[in-house]
Amino acid sequence: MPSMIRLLGPLQRSLDAAAGALLQPRFGPSVDFARPTGESALVGFDSLSWRIFKNPIALLVGGMTAVILELAEPAVRTGVWEHSSFRENPLGRLQRTGMAAMVTVYGARSVAEPMIAGVVRMHSRVNGTTPSGEVFHANDARLLRWVQATATFGFGGAYSRYVQHLDQEEWDRLYAEGGPAARLYGACNAPDSRAAVESLFDSMRTRLERSAIVFEFLDIMRSTSALPAALRWMQPLLVGAAVDLVPPWIRLRLGLGAALGLTPAGRGLVRLAGAAAERLVLPEAPPALACIRLGLPPNYLYAKRPPSQTPRL
Q1: What is the mean pLDDT of residues 71-97?
Q2: d(CA 133, CA 106)
Q3: Is residue 58 situated within a structural domain?
Q4: Is residue 50 part of a domain?
Q5: How many CB atoms lie within 10 A of CB 248?
């Protein structure tokens, strides 16, 4: 594992502030990931999920890939686009989504479980009709299954392609780790292996469809100020990286041509950024604070540890 990066003061503070702004919404409850002391999360500190979600490049790219795939499904697309504030306040929506992901992975159980229950209650009020006349409910297990699978596919895929390669066993572990949270969200039959996800994707071949909303989403993500000013030039590259992760047959179905993806040079830049982010400790971000909650050093997810020094909690 490469050595950790600790940046010079101004840039480190800027990135810490950016992480706080993205993951702690201005309006809504603040979450202290360092409390309650000693309380475990829904997934263990030695999990792949903790390793992957600490990387902001994997989070941003993977999150966008997941949204592209969700917007390809007509009922999910209508629910997201017509029953949320994404178009009017995209950064606020990103903040709330980022916070939910962080609490689900790193938050103490006593914080994560009520938060998820609140999301389920909110979704219970979301229902409607797609432009084609199909009635949908946001808490439909079929739709939740798609959302859960595409989220893990996006985050895992971004990490594997732009940070560190995941092998078959690691992919299966990652999908299985999401099971407890998926069931709390209502996705009781979410796929728990790579083979199951591939089967689900294959079953959607006649369901997914092209929509102008996907292209509008990509435009929003290129222009929204989601990164510090000094790093904003990277946003179009990260959007292209997200498009590149979409399976080729789905890209073709959605009309996402080669020009919307990455050039070889752009792919190299994103990989460099992913590798750098893998060594960048953000002391005020949820991964470091969650480690502190469990009595681990804030750099636990980054530092080399011989087996004899691995904590037993």
Answers
A1: 83
A2: 39
A3: yes
A4: yes
A5: 9
* pLDDT of 20 over the 80 cut: no
Q: What are the Cα distances from residue 96, in Å, to 60, 87, 118, 153?
A: 13, 14, 13, 20
- What CA–CA distance (Å, rounded) separates 220 from 34? 33
Domain assignment of residue 56, yes or no: yes
Report the C-alpha dihedral over residues 133, 134, 137, 138, rounded to 10 degrees. Answer: -90
Domain count, the chain: 1
Residue 111 falls in which region: left (phi positive, over 0), alpha (psi -120 to 50) or beta: alpha
What domain range includes position 130? 9-26+38-293
Considering the domain boundaries, does residue 33 fall inside one? no
**pTM for the complete prediction?**
0.90
Cβ atoms within 10 A of the Cβ of 96, count? 18
- Degrees to nearest 5, angle at CA 230 with 225 and 232: 35
Lowest mean pLDDT among 17-21, 67-71, 212-216: 17-21
